[in-house]
Write a structure and sequence with these properties.
The protein is an all-alpha fold and about 100 residues long. It is built from 4 helices and no strands.
Length: about 100
């Protein structure tokens, strides 16, 4: 059984099977970036600096587990889809608000 055929898209892109050290770090940084984007677009509220640091610390620790799961499961791909959906939602929300302000 060839393990490279079972890898998720990002794991195959970063060649985790050929270069495990560099590939896993790249996958880890991708997971962190995507999780931060999804968090900021969908869930972030204005918090004091200390609380924000704690949230981001736990977000980064959680990405460690997600990275190991993301080698074979489409975790990063799901985060990309979630980020795209949230971006579309935010754009539409801003357009709606501008339209309501212009209508008044």
């Amino acid at each position: 059984m060839d393990i490279s055929q079972r890898l998720s898209f990002f794991a195959a892109l970063y060649k985790v099977d050929e270069q495990p050290d560099l590939g896993m770090w790249m996958l880890y940084l991708t997971m962190i970036a995507l999780c931060v984007i999804v968090y900021k677009l969908g869930f972030a509220k204005k918090l004091p600096l200390g609380k924000s640091l704690v949230i981001y610390l736990f977000l980064i620790l959680g990405c460690t587990v997600l990275t190991f799961l993301g080698v074979f499961l489409p975790i990063a791909e799901g985060l990309v889809v979630a980020a795209l959906i949230l971006i579309i939602y935010k754009v539409r929300l801003n357009q709606q608000k501008k339209h309501e302000l212009n209508a008044k």
